[in-house]
Write a structure and sequence with these properties.
34% of the residues lie in helices and 20% in strands. The protein contains 5 helices and 4 strands. Helix 2 crosses helix 3. The longest helix is centred in the N-terminal third of the chain and has 13 residues. It starts with 6 loop residues before the first helix and ends in a 17-residue tail after the last strand.
Length: 164
């Protein structure tokens, strides 16, 4: 569904990208519009799916997740091979594990089929994930892991000036 966005919609989105806690009243004051106008625009942005959710950006290291890794998977080829199904199974199997957080899972092009971004509390937990957990999935043919040494920028709000 394509939703036509005007300058007010884009201004609201710009503010919310950096401050998801902004209230309707705060948005109205910042943008010089009535609260009812802002509320109806927010409803439109939410119901259309343009705003999928409101989130806090966490400091993962302070929560104990000291390691971030990107894991690239190659999926076995065959009749029953399904990249999406495998990715969903991995995500579902990780839910509820307090020492592992799968932040992203993407189906990609190129040499690999799936790219995952995971956060773990220790090298031992990463090792368990790679040696004990991943081999349980029969469609994983190969994996390659890249440890993040330093994160320069993790969340960069999109410039909404290019959207018309």
């Amino acid at each position: 569904m394509n939703v036509k966005l005007d300058q007010l919609d884009l201004a609201i989105l710009s503010i919310l990208q950096t401050n998801c806690k902004a209230t309707t009243a705060e948005l109205a004051k910042l943008l010089g519009k009535p609260r009812t106008t802002i509320a109806s625009r927010l409803d439109k942005l939410l119901s259309s799916g343009i705003i999928r959710s409101f989130r806090a950006i966490l400091d993962y290291k302070k929560l104990g997740f000291s390691l971030t890794a990107f894991i690239f998977l190659t999926v076995k080829r065959g009749e029953a091979s399904n990249q999406v199904m495998l990715a969903e199974q991995i995500v579902d199997s990780c839910k509820g594990n307090p020492s592992l957080w799968v932040e992203e899972v993407n189906i990609i092009t190129g040499r690999y089929d799936i790219m995952m971004k995971i956060r773990v509390k220790s090298l031992e937990e990463l090792t368990r994930f790679l040696i004990d957990f991943l081999p349980k999935f029969k469609d994983v043919e190969r994996s390659e892991t890249f440890l993040v040494l330093q994160t320069i920028e993790e969340y960069q709000p999109i410039s909404l000036q290019v959207i018309k």
